[in-house]
Design a protein that fits this description.
The structure is a homotrimer. By secondary structure, chain A is of the alpha+beta class. In chain A, a hairpin with a 3-residue loop joins strand 10 and strand 11. Chain A contains seven helices and 19 strands. In chain A, the strands form three sheets. In chain A, strands 1-2-12-3-13-17-15-16 form an eight-stranded mixed sheet, with helices on both faces. Chain A has a six-stranded antiparallel barrel with strand order 4-5-8-7-6-9. Chains B and C meet through helix 5 and strand 16 of B and strand 5 and helix 4 of C. Chains A, B, C: It comes from Algoriphagus lacus. Chains A, B, C: Belongs to the peptidase M42 family. Chains A, B, C: One of its GO terms (molecular function) is aminopeptidase activity.
Chain lengths: ~300, ~300, ~300
């Protein structure tokens, strides 16, 4: 889990994903010799801070977003959210501007957010939750498991993957915007008709810790029934524990696959977390393990 | 109206449109020999559950969505809407899951929807309004006239069409998602710069039964004035009864034509209904007749 | 400022931008011989009412929207907004329908808008704010400075521009829809990876008159940090006065660049105004001057 700890230590608020992007590139360069298949890697300014790995002859693309929610400084000591962070007064925030390192508290009054840093902070500075990783034999708890675990899953998948795209996207937490150009590149290079979204979902009245990876039948958007039927029947055959989710809210990179100019089926598959979009996101290690195994299984079978 | 009754008898909640898709394909295969022009037909997994007919050298594409609003089972006996159905306690719903046929009542308490089916229903099962078709000499009344009438109009148009695309889209009731790939296919195959949306709109204080098909000057989105001026002046020349609609809400497949990467003018043209998105949608047969005639006229003249 | 006055005198409510489009074409035809570089000009029905100028070998595209907010007549004496105009009872509105010129007052009761014109107005007629241009030595005040000033800036830029696209878009005030096809044309003809949005923003607690052009670090959407860092450092080097904006609401043509299928960095740069979307929009001439100079500087340096 050294990789996961390294990922959890980086800042990557939407629009500023270069640090995590670099970690992924460095990790791949160091480790890919031990991977079963050597992928072609696409990254750099033409791809903004996104990365694509192409293994063999892809039928399916896996998308893991590398950005996180957070805050941005406005005027005086105001903060505006990036994505949808939980607003809990007292939460520790960290960042950096032209004058140096920043560590402060989040405060809220009458639905406006502030920080308590003694000096002014440059306009437009991104602040992240202070990281605090806790692992025991049942759970991992930290800020930004959403979506460091999705990245981790995608990178572990690379070790054994024969055929498929593994794609690291940006901006997912703040409305998206990278999936359209990534999909265009994929479809022009080596097209697919299936996509899996490697991301983290929610513990709810129907989704519980330790009951396996979540396969989402819908969130705000709805994947195609024919594809879901096939995928769920494969999941059943796999013997890997999984739970079926039905939500009316929430979205993922799947939304932009749905609205893309390509007929690509998609499905969100990922472990569920408590304390969503807080510094205390909490995921069952059992569910994470099911996630890793389910991706390896499905990428072979789909 | 045998075709219309057959269409009204099928379930096709967004994301699960294969039954209606099959009815359309079967109908076309059986009837197209009597059509004036033999179209090229595109369908199958590459098009998900959508279908495209190409007649001659198209200048205009007609879009009719084949999905409907409905419900999906969540956890326990909860239901979540698909699209925007009217929530009326007591409404009869039908569907099917792994354990068999389902017939139950919709119930609402504190803005949460439930069903009263005595056994649990598989998560993610789609439920439709129970169908009850009523026709007299003035009106047709049934569930899902929106958009079975739009499909019916598009298929009747095929009988006499010389040039044009007739396209059956999915997901319209739930945010869309098929128009982008359909348009890309059209523009790469035989491009158009005009689109008509064959769909059903609303009776309002300005739109009345028996006053003709509705030509919509705007809903939430606004077609280009130059195109509307030309289209309305043709409609006036046609002698076919029509009404002009101006709304600030509502959308259609036209929305995705508007936001597509092609300069395509579009307009919504269709009969108006009462009791929108209930099992009792009601349309004037006179207005339906104007709709059929207006499409035949405009597809020649535009 | 004759050009600006001419632009301010035209009506161009979203979806009906042909008048302003014509002014731009006529101006360019008359003046382009004195421009440093002769652009290629693309316009006409294939581009709806949009216009593109290509200068040299573009690295960056400038977008200025040519539409404005306004109203559309509905049934009886009702009005529905186009875009988001401020609703102030008593505001003078003007327009034209099949029966002739219209001049009336806007009235609001219980969140519904009406007009007081003595005769009925054709359904779907667009009404604009009555124009009243006021200039002193510090300010210009008028209806529709948003975005006549953005157009003016783009056209002044043409005089000295070596390399770049200058693009006039439609529909920006009402959800957009022209940027996708304009971008597709640009990327197929002479692609860019940078875009500047020539538009007008808001005076707020952090943005003041006479303090220079506004460079927006974010509105509802967020440009990429790497690009903003480079752009702001250039702006600092320029010596031209500028202010940094951080907002959580509002959008521009930048939104559609963000969600396009191309990896194009973008930034909104424009003067700020008071009395947004009223007939009394007010912009500092000092800020307008900084805007003109900043575009000339950045289009060279980026």
């Amino acid at each position: 889990m050294k990789l996961l700890f390294e990922l959890l230590g980086k800042h990557s608020v939407s629009g500023d994903e270069s640090e995590v992007s670099q970690v992924i590139i460095n990790y791949a360069k160091k480790r890919m010799k031990s991977w079963k298949v050597q992928p072609e890697i696409y990254f750099g300014e033409d791809f903004h801070d996104c990365i694509l790995f192409k293994f063999g002859k892809p039928r399916t693309a896996v998308f893991a977003h590398i950005d996180t929610i957070g805050f941005m400084t406005r005027y005086q000591n105001q903060l505006v959210p990036v994505g949808g962070p939980e607003i809990l007064s007292g939460t520790r925030l960290v960042g950096k501007d032209s004058k140096g390192e920043i560590s402060c508290q989040l405060m809220e009054e009458e639905e406006v957010c502030f920080h308590d840093f003694p000096r002014g902070i440059d306009r437009g500075t991104r602040l992240s939750f202070e990281q605090n990783i806790r692992v025991d034999d049942k759970f991992i708890q930290a800020a930004y498991l959403d979506n460091r675990l999705g990245i981790y899953n995608a990178l572990k998948l690379c070790e054994t993957l024969d055929n498929g795209w593994v794609v690291f996207s940006t901006y997912e937490e703040h409305g998206g915007g990278s999936i359209p150009f990534l999909l265009r590149f994929i479809q022009n290079n080596s097209p697919v008709n299936q996509a899996l979204i490697s991301d983290i979902t929610w513990i709810t009245e129907g989704i519980h810790h330790h009951e396996g990876v979540v396969i989402s039948i819908r969130d705000k958007f709805i994947p195609r029934k024919k594809f879901m039927d096939r995928l769920i029947s494969l999941a059943e055959k796999s013997g890997i524990p999984f739970q079926l989710e039905v939500e009316s809210y929430g979205g993922s990179d799947g939304r932009e696959v749905q609205f893309s100019p390509y007929a690509i089926d998609w499905c969100f598959i990922g472990a569920a977390e408590d304390n969503v979009h807080t510094p205390n996101e909490k995921v069952s290690l059992f569910d994470l393990d099911s996630m890793l195994r389910m991706y390896q299984y499905l990428m072979n079978e789909l």
